Amino acid sequence: MIELVRDTYRYRELIWALALKELTIRYKRSVLGFLWALLNPALLMLVLTLVFSTIMRFAIPHYAIFLLSVLLPWTFFSQSLSYAVESIVGNGDLIKKVKVAKLVFPMAAIVSNLINLFLSLIPLALLVPLMRHPFYWTWLYLPVPLLALTIFTLGMTFFFAAANVYYRDVAHILQVVLSAWFYVTPIIYSLDFIPPKHQWIFKLNPIIYVINGFRLSVYYGMLPKATSIIASFVCAFISLFIGFAIFRKYQDDFVFYV
Amino acid sequence: MSSSSIPIRLQNVTQRFRVIHERPDTLRELFSKFFRHESHYHDFEAVKSVSFEVPSGQMLGLIGRNGSGKSTLLKIVAGVYRPTAGEVQVKGSLAPLIELGAGFHHELTGRENILLNGLLMGYSKREMQEREQRIVEFAEIGDFIDAPVKQYSSGMYMRLAFSVATEIDPAILLIDEILAVGDLPFQQKCFERIQNFRKAGKTILFVSHSMEEISQHCDRAILIERGSILADGPPGDVIEVYKSSTALEVVGAH
Fold it and tell me: Of B119, B22, B16, B40, which is closest to residue A16 (Cα–Cα)?
């Protein structure tokens, strides 16, 4: 684990440059360029707000904010994984020719998606007053769930990036897992909708502790319970330990399989 | 001789590759192979128990036929492969001129690629910014430096790559047949630069099929044949061994 921190620091400039490269390439050919990183979530919000305030009315007030407060972190999670799962195989040519620390590739995928997440929080922050939803001071708490989410995602990312080197099916399986995972996680609905006797099943899902803090602080203006915060970091670190241990064990052999 | 003056040392280095006949790319293939007890690979030793040392300041030429293991050896020294067995010691900063432009990305500009490539080789952003001007000048690509490298001609591409790889003042250079890049004047510039490296006491490992280049530039040569060292000594002698061994084979084939 110390190795992970040390290498991240040592290669910080490379990770940052690779993340920026990813973003540059993603937006390069478009007229609006980098603005799309802001426009994308903003337009998504516009659609959601219109749909849920006029066409599909839910019993939840300000449903768009209710939804977006966890949809944006979820998007970060699923996008990071989708990018990172291919990060080793996709850079195979480079790995075969240059001595390079393998962990920079999944790391860069995470960083570029973190930048996207930050940019998407800006339109959310604009939407809150627009919908006359209170702007709670608990927004200041967001760095805590953000940290847990990043650690959790990093661990999963290491695991999937390594596994995909050996079996290319992993990238496909991941897409199925992610879409199933989306629906069993209280993102478009609330855990309260589930009958209390079945709630324990949903509570087995580690990511609910991680993303719970986002909805509480942005939508409800509350802080999570201490047990929930602890649970989120326990899940995050278990993910990181297992993911990085597997990645580290196989990283020197990646070059023979990419 | 003290060990500090030996920048490259290989001891009984073996590199085994798994040659996969029909690669089980998917789980289904893996399962079906598994149940039929088929072996879908064989192991192949590209480098077999090779030991040699390169003293500081020496230019060592590696010769041998295609597939003999020269490039694999270079990649072991470069740290791209971790050898299956044996020990590799490399002391000092290393510039691999193995596959020039490997780290280049086509959508990025020359300037962006200079930075990214430098970072990939382990240099800091500041170091690369300090050298940027000199890299651009040596590569002679003028205003193209701010254009995406996909618009470069192949000569420009290689010139920039060579320039980035050599402007960083390494202690050890690994050169794999890349000097056929660019036009004649640029080739001469490359050789001049390599001569300067030699004068500055850098250690150079040089792979080439041109016996002329080997005898002209190297202090010593090693002949590799099927992953093992067949001859080691002054370039002239080693080239003779190489020539007679290939001649013999040609005769034997008739």
Answer: B119
Q: Residue A100 is nearest to which of B81, B108, B120, comparing CB atoms?
A: B120
Determine the Cα–Cα distance for residues B47 and B12; give it in Å rounded to an integer: 9
pLDDT in tens, A122-178: 888 988 898 889 999 999 999 999 999 999 999 999 999 999 999 999 999 999 999
Q: Is A93 on the interface with B (CB under 8 A)?
A: yes
CA atoms of B199 and B205, how far apart (whole Å) = 15
- The answer to whether A148 and A233 have CB atoms below 8 angstroms apart is yes
In sequence order, the 6+-apart residues with CB closer than 8 A to the CB of B131 are B118, B167, B168
Separation between Cα atoms, residue B247 and residue B8, nearest integer Å: 32
Q: How confident is the model at residue B2 (pLDDT cuts 50, 70, 90)?
A: very low
Q: What's the DSSP call for residue A252?
A: G
Amino acid identity of A41?
Answer: P
Q: How many helices (H) and strands (E) does chain B have?
A: 8, 9
The ipTM assigned to this model is: 0.81
SS (H, E, C) B34-63: HHCCCCCEEEEEEEEEEEEEECCCCEEEEE
Nearest CA in chain A to B104: A94
Whether the Cβ atoms of residue B231 and residue B223 lie closer than 8 Å to each other? yes
Alpha helices by DSSP H, listed for B36-148, are 70-78, 110-120, 125-139
Radius of gyration of chain B (CA): 21
Distance (Å, whole) CA B84 – CA A204: 43
Let me know the angle formed at the C-alpha of A248 by A245 and A253, rounded to the nearest 5 degrees: 135
pTM for this entry: 0.86
* Nearest CB partner across the interface for B108, out of A13, A21, A96: A21
SS3 assignment, position A57: coil
Tokens coding A30: 């478009």
Query: How do strand B85-90 and strand B8-20 relate by DSSP bridges?
Result: antiparallel
**CB-based contact A94 B96, cutoff 8 Å:** no
Question: A94 vs B102: CB contact, 8 Å cut-off?
Answer: yes
**Measured CA distances, A148 to A5, A153, A223 (Å):** 16, 9, 15
Angle at A92 between CA A250 and CA B85, to 5 degrees: 45
Among B34, B94, B119, B176, most A C-beta atoms within 10 A, so best to mutate, is B119
Tens of pLDDT, residue by residue over A22-68, are: 888 887 767 777 788 788 878 887 887 788 777 766 778 888 889 89
